[in-house]
Specification:
This protein is α/β, with parallel strands linked by helices and about 525 residues long. Helices cover about 45% and strands about 10% of the residues.
Length: about 525
């Protein structure tokens, strides 16, 4: 198939991915190597086994009722549940997940200080799924446990415990959808407002502000490739423009995979000292894959809304588990309080079915209401079985003080990165800020390292990215995504290091090198 660059420019990254998959699939009966998607092929087993054991215990609790009616159970009883759990664990001690579950309950009781019986009852009722989520925002003890995990991973330690509120949502995608809807509904972001976006970035985040629903004006805050994709101070100074209402970023980045450096965080902090009204939204889903991570939320908690998903780190994309985190004292609530009187009255009418005092309703609770169009707020909230698995994931990470799981998944990604560059025949670049979840194959830079600057310039000028990616799909059944779809300014392709075998990345590197070698022969014979 002859695909020219102009045709690729008309397609979204997801359309390009599907097209390349189609090309790769029909050209050969061999296994296709799809490194275009970030769905991990590794997952956390222990908290899943724990979930299974919790399910058995929960069902034994349900069986205590309606014993005279076959196939019918009832809800769990709080009274005596801890003793019954101890008996259950003894009888299942040698089964996978039982010891973890027992240790988790002990950790919650002895280390976190929550009553074991109330925690167990919350988890059992949550697993059974026999109640509406209550509270609708998030299970009470579950919220406190997940908050501890989140703050630990975000580099905040214990500083913000008790001050951070969570809303459990159906993954990071739902979080973004809910946020933009509620920010618009509460007059925080209005049509024509400017919103700054750190680029390169996950392509849907470039598209959301342009939708007819929002019609926001995008201002790009561009990372510098030559500085390891860090944001220069001059770019951050664009945020001093008072017309910019919010700054949106992914940290560590997608597709760049690097976290914001301490210098960038400090520069951003200085900007906010001058722009105290600036709202920041940060998606930190890849935080757990990088060393010594520090979130913007941990540095600027009062100005920042934090979005986190459990999908990548725990291999749980199908579970749809995410949270929106906000400080109790946040800029959004202040902005709402300062709205014009006619806007306040409109919002009073909107939220009057939720509370007797709509003006005092915090933004995070407005998010919950708006997620179900307010009128259906009583049935809002992430399903309780999903919340239970989320809590077990969080406990697993909190209890793993030696970081065994984290070291293991980081080792997997780094080995794949090495294999890719081994296939290219090049020494791998290293960066302490890199999460290694993705990597960008910079065709120009690799071409220069291999064959010199003159070839790199020729390649960039003469060979469309679309042609290069199509050849990879046709000749080697390798699927990558163009960097341009993420607003990368130079010819490149994003490789997900999460979803293939180590040997496959070696092959991808070898294939890219083979095609570049062929282009070099064409260059020499021009």
């Amino acid at each position: 198939m002859d695909l020219r660059e102009i045709e690729f420019e008309k397609l979204s990254p997801f359309e390009i991915k599907d097209l390349l998959i189609n090309i790769a699939s029909r050209k050969s009966q061999k296994m296709m190597l799809n490194a275009g998607r970030g769905n991990p092929n590794f997952l956390a087993l222990i908290p899943r086994y724990g979930f299974s054991q919790l399910g058995l215990f929960a069902l034994s609790e349900a069986e205590r009722h309606f014993g005279y009616m076959e196939g019918i159970g009832g809800q769990s009883d709080l009274e005596g549940i801890e003793a019954r759990f101890e008996l259950f664990v003894r009888s299942h001690w040698d089964e996978k997940g039982a010891r973890f579950l027992n240790a988790a309950v002990s950790y919650v009781k002895d280390h976190l200080g929550f009553p074991a019986d109330r925690f167990l009852h919350e988890m059992v009722q949550g697993y059974l799924g026999c109640d509406y989520p209550s509270p609708v925002r998030m299970l009470k003890i579950g919220e406190k446990i997940v908050a501890r995990y989140l703050l630990k991973e975000m580099g905040a330690g214990h500083d913000l415990i008790g001050e951070t509120q969570l809303f459990a949502v159906e993954g990071g995608t739902a979080a973004m959808s809910y946020l933009f809807e509620s920010l618009k509904a509460n007059f925080i972001l209005n049509e024509g407002d400017k919103i700054a976006i750190a680029v390169p970035i996950f392509s849907p985040y470039l598209e959301i502000p342009k939708l007819d629903t929002y019609r926001l004006v995008e201002v790009e805050i561009a990372a510098d490739k030559d500085k390891g994709y860090q944001i220069p101070a001059g770019e951050l100074e664009k945020l001093l423009d008072p017309e910019i209402k919010a700054f949106f970023l992914v940290n560590p980045g997608n597709p760049t995979a690097v976290k914001l450096s301490a210098e960038v965080l400090e520069n951003l902090k200085k900007i906010v000292e001058k722009r105290k009204d600036l709202l920041i939204i940060t998606d930190d889903v890849y935080a757990t894959f990088v060393d010594n991570f520090k979130s913007v939320y941990s540095v600027l908690p009062h100005n920042t809304i934090l979005v986190y998903s459990f999908s990548k780190y725990f291999g749980a994309t199908g579970w749809r588990l995410g949270v929106i985190a906000m400080h109790e004292d946040n800029i959004v609530d202040k902005k709402i309080q300062s709205l014009r009187e006619e806007q306040q009255k409109e919002l009073e009418s909107r939220y009057s079915s939720v509370t007797m005092n709509p003006r005092e309703l915090k933004f995070i609770d407005r998010l919950v209401a708006d997620s179900r169009n307010v009128a259906l707020r009583h049935t809002a909230g992430l399903s309780t079985p999903q919340q239970v698995q989320m809590v077990l994931f969080a406990l697993y990470a909190l209890m793993d003080e030696e970081g065994k799981y984290k070291r293991a998944v980081k080792r997997i990604l780094r080995r794949r990165y090495k294999a890719l560059y081994r296939g290219l025949g090049l020494e791998q670049p290293t960066d302490e800020n890199n999460s290694y979840y993705y990597t960008l194959i910079d065709a120009e830079a690799i071409g220069e390292k291999l064959y010199g600057r003159e070839f790199a310039e020729w390649f960039t000028e003469k060979i469309p990215t679309g042609e290069f990616l199509t050849r990879l799909a046709e000749e080697a059944q390798v699927v990558l995504l163009p960097g341009k779809g993420f607003d990368v300014k130079h010819p490149s392709a994003r490789v997900s290091l999460a979803n293939l075998r180590e040997v496959d990345y070696l092959k991808i590197g070898q294939t890219v090198r083979k095609i570049l070698d062929e282009y070099y022969e064409e260059f020499k014979n021009r």
